[in-house]
Amino acid sequence: MGVVTDLPDPDALLSELGFDADENVLTRRQAEVLALRERGAAQQAIADELGTSRANVSSVEASARENVRKAHETVAFAEALQAPVRITVTAGTDLYDVPSRVFTACDDADVKVNRTAPELMKLVADEAGDAIQGREVKRDIVVGVTSEGRVRVRSA
Predict the structure, then answer these.
(1) Is 6 helix (H, G, I), strand (E, B) or coil?
(2) How far apart are CA 73 and CA 91, in angstroms?
(3) Going from the N-terminus, what domains does the chain have, and what CATH number goes with each?
(4) Residue 132 C-beta-side C-alpha neighbours within 13 Å
(5) Mean pLDDT of 142-146
(6) How far apart are CA 23 and CA 147, in angstroms?
(7) Which 3 state secondary structure label does DSSP give 151?
(8) What pLDDT sits at residue 88?
(9) Does the predicted model carry a pTM greater than 0.90?
(10) Residue 81 pLDDT > 90, yes or no?
(11) Cβ pair 98, 143 in contact under 8 A
(12) What's the confidence (pLDDT) of residue 114?
């Protein structure tokens, strides 16, 4: 992310991005800070633009990123509740065994997954984070597949 020296107008930027404060988990200030940061603006430049301190911008950004993380987790939870396919992958399982288990469960539920085995392993490993180390599942995880074939991974 290169540093931007000429900042876009925060109001125009949020309007362009379709930000609606009534429908968003972010405050307007959090949305402004994230939008400007994602466009390469330095915290000090944002602080100058918004008439606040760099420390305040840092705090707002941290809170915004945490709210985004929680929103992602909430969506994953809601999808897991509705997923017709859910398998628990227990600690000690080899990551290479996960795709066949997912494909079998999806076949049984008549759900299509538009991913190859290597793509599925990468997705599971990426979404499971530190629950997988190398090829080994270190902590139980739940792999859910929605009726549309979207795969979600959560800690058990």
Answers:
(1) coil
(2) 21
(3) 10-77 (no CATH), 83-155 (3.30.470)
(4) 24
(5) 91
(6) 26
(7) strand
(8) 95
(9) no
(10) no
(11) yes
(12) 87
Whether the CA torsion 139, 105, 135, 125 is positive or negative: it is negative
- Angle ∠(53,56,31) on CA atoms, nearest 5: 115
What's phi and psi for 96, nearest 5 deg? -70, -15
Question: Could you give the CA distance from residue 94 to residue 84 in angstroms, rounded to a whole number?
Answer: 24
CA distances to 65, 101, 117, 128 from 145, rounded to whole Å, are 26, 12, 14, 15
Q: Which helix (H) or strand (E) holds 141?
A: strand 141-145
Average pLDDT, the chain: 92
Is the pLDDT at 119 greater than 90? The verdict is yes
| Token reading at 54 | 């760099």
C-beta separation of 87 from 58 below 8 A: no
C-alpha dist (Å) from residue 82 to 74, 96, 145, 146, 147: 13, 26, 9, 7, 8
How many beta carbons lie within 10 A of that of residue 98, not counting itself?
Answer: 25
The Cα 123–Cα 134 span in angstroms is 14
